[in-house]
Amino acid sequence: MTRKLFVGGNFKMNGDLEQLTKLVHQFNEADVDVESAEVVIAPPALYILPLKELARKGISVAAQNAHQLPAGAYTGEISLQQLKDIGLNWVILGHSERRTIFHESDELVAEKTAAALKANIQVIFCIGETLEEREGNKTEEVVTRQTEALAKVIGEDDWKHIVVAYEPVWAIGTGKVATPEVAQDTHKMIRNFLAKRVSQKVANDTRIIYGGSVAGKNAQELCNQPDIDGALVGGASLKPEFVDIIRAAE
Ligand code: G3P
Q1: pLDDT tens across 125-175, in order?
Q2: Could you tell me which of 174, 175, 191, 198 has the C-alpha nearest to residue 225?
Q3: Contact 184/228 with Cβ under 8 angstroms?
Q4: Which of 22, 146, 187, 194 could form a disulfide with 203 if both were Cys (CB 3.0 to 4.6 A apart)?
Q5: ipTM for this model
Q6: Measuring from atom 10 of ligand 1, which residue has the nearest CA?
Q7: The ligand 1 atom nearest the CA atom of 235
Q8: Which residue ranges of the chain lie beneath pLDDT 70?
Q9: Which CATH superfamily is domain 5-241 in?
Q10: Alpha carbon of 15 to ligand 1 centroid (Å)
């Protein structure tokens, strides 16, 4: 099976209604082939509904996080069932900002991911090492540990609803993009882990996308690597440049 390229735009806690509406209008008007690349944008929770109404067919909307329980006294949280209720089919989970700033453990991210699949929501499952871990030669240990936590709680068949986003923490928002070779090596390592731990089929079919300072000028080279199936874009997804990244992935 050939893996359909995937380009995600993670707006994080940026933008207001006027700016984001304008941005999505620009994406809608751009001539991109959404048949050859799957495009998903993740606005702040407050703007999910209006932007979902606005985004043209072929551009899906994701949440940036969700709570693992269906309902209850969890002030400030949103459940996966509520996301599904408004017609959402994607959620980003385990972003390094959630893992570090909000102390989400490997186990919690895995639990949230399993809960999302149960709620029929597909997951952009983020993993990645810090600079200290990379310099300490711990990249493989970290990404396999994060992926293993998920492999423990989901079945082989569930992986078709997961896109793995490899986002080295040192490359996020720093302008220090991983070289295509460094990114490719880690993606291959993750794919090999899936082959060994889950199955060869899951390894072949699972999309592994790269995130960390992806821009119009480097997207093509990254996406040309055999094990890089697209990008998860932060800063550049807030600019018309996002369209160039989608075109590079097509
Ligand atoms: O989720 C996307 C991300 O963390 C990368 O952000 O700004 O480096 O593209 P950025």
Answers
A1: 999 999 999 999 999 999 999 999 999 999 999 999 999 999 999 999 998
A2: 191
A3: yes
A4: 194
A5: 0.98
A6: 234
A7: 7
A8: 1
A9: Aldolase class I (3.20.20.70)
A10: 15
Positive/negative CA dihedral, 27, 29, 31, 32: positive
DSSP string across 76-110: T--BHHHHHHTT--EEEE--HHHHHHS---HHHHH
The one-letter code for the residue type at 7 is V
Amino acid at 154: I
Could you tell me the residue ranges of all domains in the chain? 5-241
Active-site amino acid positions: 95, 167
- 229 and 3 Cβ atoms separated by less than 8 Å: yes
